[in-house]
Design a protein that fits this description.
Order of helices and strands: HHHHHHHHHHHHHHHHHHHH
Radius of gyration: 22 Å
Shape: globular
Helix content: over 70%
Number of helices: 20
Distance between the termini: 24 Å
Largest sheet: none
Mean pLDDT: 79
Structural class: mainly alpha
């Protein structure tokens, strides 16, 4: 299967999953309001941080070692053993400090946190094994299964008046199902498990001692602001902020799909000492890292208030926050590609330095700017810390691999996005002036579809690289593209 087709399968699966989650969040927000939604996301934030301790970078280490193709069964069992042991230690700590957790969250959630943590750790182990076995497309297909199951159970439980507890139970069921399904595919493709030796644990630890900070960076990008906001603002505002995050992260899906797909390929090429091939993949990943994020920035700035209005009357006040968070995701889209490269070529030590810059600036800026400016400060802190780590990541990769930033291709994407923005702005003004539809959801839907059509039509017209990529990765021939 071509890399592009694998990325598209993974992306479309993630896209469908996020769409299901988006609809579920809208329903929950309308039924329960921003308060319970804020409690739910604070718990998820705590779990994400605890999962970092529970994995200590082992997900990346397991994917790396298994992708190398030797003694896969031993590395899988060694990684699972370490993760289970760490989970037991964390659970003891949670039970010891349950009163403090309840006071912080504002809800008796310790039991839910323990179960969600277990299922999240198992899911991360399954994903790591699937990526290492070059089954990224399977991992991607499991996303809509997880999100769809979670969404259906949450909606059903909320409708049955289960309240906040229903959000936690639905989350557990969704993750649990994909662990079972993913485990089935792993059992079919992983050789017989063999008893790991000390060297297997050591090689995992050698990689993980650097890559754990990458896990911390990933979770801090999504949850540090929410965790710190939990100290300074109400759960209602956190619910609005989480809704904005939900929209912003929707746009980074393709970049994440690209990273997950390219990692095992770059890892294999690196093991073969083919630096030229790795450089070509790096350039391609940067060419398409902002494919959806760049137009998403224009769309978010123009339609952010109307999109948030879909969640309920209390949510449009997060429009400015949404725009800043999209900028953060745009920068993270490129940073992900560069960090992915460092890990794939077995330089987790350099990725560690990049992540250290992000972690340090993120914590410091979030505390300072949230204290001074509230939730706007949280969004700015996230964007600024990503920008700083992106610059360092570029210099680290550039020092090892001879590659060129595809500035012409990226500029074409910006040009297409500007034209798209003009069309969307014109349509928005016409609707506001003449009241053509007088229906917010219909207006948003039509303008999003129109804008996407304009963006991709312009990009197909002006970018030979984009036309070639589409043509080569379509399951059938398109004469118009082939002739171009």
């Amino acid at each position: 299967m071509r890399l592009g087709q694998t990325s598209i399968i993974y992306f479309l699966s993630k896209l469908f999953a996020s769409a299901l989650g988006f609809l579920a969040t809208i329903y929950i927000a309308r039924m329960l309001g921003p308060g319970p939604l804020g409690v739910y996301h604070v718990v998820l934030g705590l779990v994400s941080w605890l999962a970092i301790v529970g994995k200590v970078g082992l997900s990346g280490a397991i994917s790396k070692r298994i992708s190398e193709g030797e003694e896969r069964g031993a590395y899988a069992l060694a990684g699972a053993t370490i993760i289970l042991g760490l989970f037991i230690l964390i659970t003891c700590g949670l039970l010891l400090f349950r009163s403090y957790i309840t006071a912080y969250v504002g809800y008796p959630a310790t039991g839910y946190i323990v179960v969600i943590l277990l299922i999240v750790l198992l899911k991360s182990l399954v994903n790591a094994l699937l990526v290492g076995l070059h089954l990224v497309h399977v991992s991607g297909v499991l996303s809509p299964v997880r999100t769809g199951t979670r969404a259906l159970f949450q909606i059903a439980l909320v409708a049955a008046s289960a309240g906040t507890a229903g959000l936690f139970v639905g989350h557990i069921v969704g993750f649990g199902l994909v662990v079972v399904i993913g485990g089935y595919f792993i059992a079919r493709n992983l050789p017989d498990l063999s008893r790991p030796e000390r060297r297997h644990f050591q090689r995992l630890v050698d990689f993980a001692k650097f890559s754990w900070l990458g896990s911390l960076q990933s979770q801090m990008f999504s949850y540090t602001d929410i965790i710190v906001l939990g100290v300074f603002v109400s759960s209602g505002l956190i619910g609005v902020y989480a809704a904005a995050w939900n929209i912003a992260e929707f746009l980074i899906l393709f970049s994440g799909a690209l990273s997950s797909t390219l990692f095992p390929e770059m890892s294999s090429l690196s093991a073969e000492k083919d630096s030229q091939a790795v450089a070509r993949i790096v350039e391609q990943s940067l060419s398409f890292g902002g494919l959806f994020l760049i137009p998403g920035l224009f769309g978010g700035a123009l339609l952010g208030e109307r999109i948030l209005r879909i969640y309920g009357p209390e949510f449009p006040k997060g429009a400015t926050v949404l725009t800043v968070l999209i900028v953060a995701n745009l920068l993270m889209g490129y940073q992900n590609q560069l960090l992915n490269t460092l890990n794939a070529i077995d330089r987790p030590d350099l990725a560690f330095q990049v992540n250290l810059v992000f972690v340090g600036t993120n914590i410091a800026l979030n505390i300072a700017l949230i204290y001074l400016y509230g939730w706007i400060g949280a969004a700015v802190a996230t964007a600024a810390s990503v920008a700083a780590s992106l610059v360092l990541a570029y210099y680290q990769v550039d020092a090892i691999i001879d590659f060129e930033v595809p500035t012409r291709e990226i500029a074409k994407q910006w040009f297409a996005a500007v034209l798209m923005g003009g069309v969307v702005y014109t349509g928005l003004r016409a609707e506001s002036t003449y009241g053509l539809l007088n229906h917010n959801v219909a207006t948003v839907g039509i303008l999003v579809i129109l804008g996407a059509g304009v963006y991709f039509a312009v990009l197909l017209a002006i970018s030979m690289e984009f036309r070639t990529a589409v043509d080569q990765n379509m399951p059938f021939d398109l004469p118009l593209l082939s002739s171009a």
